[in-house]
Amino acid sequence: MPESQAFPLTVQAKGRGYPILCLHGHPGSAQSMSVFTDHLSSADRPHQFRTLTPDLRGYGKSQTRQAFEMEDHLTDLEALVDRLQLDQFIILGWSLGGILAIELALRMPDRVSGLILVATAARPQGSHPPVNWQDNLYTGIASVLNLLKPAWQWNIDMFGKRSLYRYLVQQHTTSVYQHLAKEGVSAYLQTSQLAHKALWNAQAQRTRYDRLPDLALIKCPALMLAGESDRHITAQSSRETAQHLHACEMRCYANTAHLFPWEISGKVLQDIDRWLEKVGLTEKL
Fold first, then answer.
1. Which of 51, 125, 62, 38 is nearest to 93 (CA)?
2. Which of 104, 119, 170, 183 could hold 32 in an S-S bridge, CB 3.0 to 4.6 Å?
3. DSSP letters along 70-87, please?
4. In the predicted model, what is the mean pLDDT of residues 58-66?
């Protein structure tokens, strides 16, 4: 497939109202964004939104046999926005999805009316320690047992807290492990080797990804949410991005890490609701 040709992404649509394009991270899928989409699209809300959540190329149900590059995600998303006839929309992006959200806002400044950036950065930096064989072994055991018996406290204490999950979450609660069983494992299994390769190739480039100098071009309001103990994309790099955006509110949550929307979902969703109302985006409904 030529690089310039868009891939037809599978999209999960929920609710009615003003559109929010929700972009997952790596590994990920549309289903892994349900913590946001179930809430924002609920008919019980005072202000219901229409959430549109694609499986990015090489993830979930948007599988391909053709190698691709990270830039191709933007080609796909631009085509998707046109196909859905979205003249104005909000973007909510988690991790890699947040980086893509920033890129789309730079490409479509007249169409993106707001950004909700979750555990992401325009110049991402990590502080993840080296991974050893024991980390991988315990993560595999914890994941299999959690899939067979979700949120089993013995498994959480014996393997979960000693696995790589200790860098993804700080609060090893049963609700977090329910999310891992229901959405985390399936998202990982549905992330193709081609998707892994595209990300590895991007990370291996000599020129470090840095969009900070361009953020002044983004004029829409933004909300940056970060976990204080995030080792994958540090809270400091998220804060740096927020400081470079024209109109960005920052929230950093103590005792949380990269998967903080699963750790403290109630607080996160409350902050998103408050921000949407504060900046007037609910008035567009």
1. 51
2. 183
3. THHHHHHHHHHHHHTT-S
4. 94
- Tens of pLDDT, residue by residue over 219-232, are 999 999 999 999 99
Choose among 217, 19, 248, 224: nearest CA to 109: 217
First to last CA, the chain: 39
d(CA 26, CA 46): 32
Cis amide bond preceding 130, omega within 30: no
Phi and psi (nearest 5°) for 226?
A: -145, 150
User: What percentage of the chain exceeds 90 in pLDDT?
Assistant: 88
Q: Tell me the CATH number for domain 11-128+192-284.
A: 3.40.50.1820
Closest CA to 2 of 89, 66, 54, 45: 66
The model scores a pTM over 0.85:
yes
Which positions ≥6 away from 207 have C-beta within 8 Å? none
| β 49-54/11-14 pair status | antiparallel
pLDDT classification of 138: cutoffs 50, 70, 90: very high
| Average pLDDT of every residue of the chain | 93
Predicted confidence at residue 2, as pLDDT, reads 45
DSSP bridge pairs for 92: 22, 116
Paired tokens of 161 = 């807290």
**What's the average model confidence in pLDDT over 273-279?**
93
Supply 95's token pair.
């991790």
- Looking at residue 9, the DSSP 8-state letter turns out to be -
Q: Sheet holding 248-253: strands in order across?
A: 11-14, 49-54, 18-23, 89-94, 112-118, 222-227, 248-253
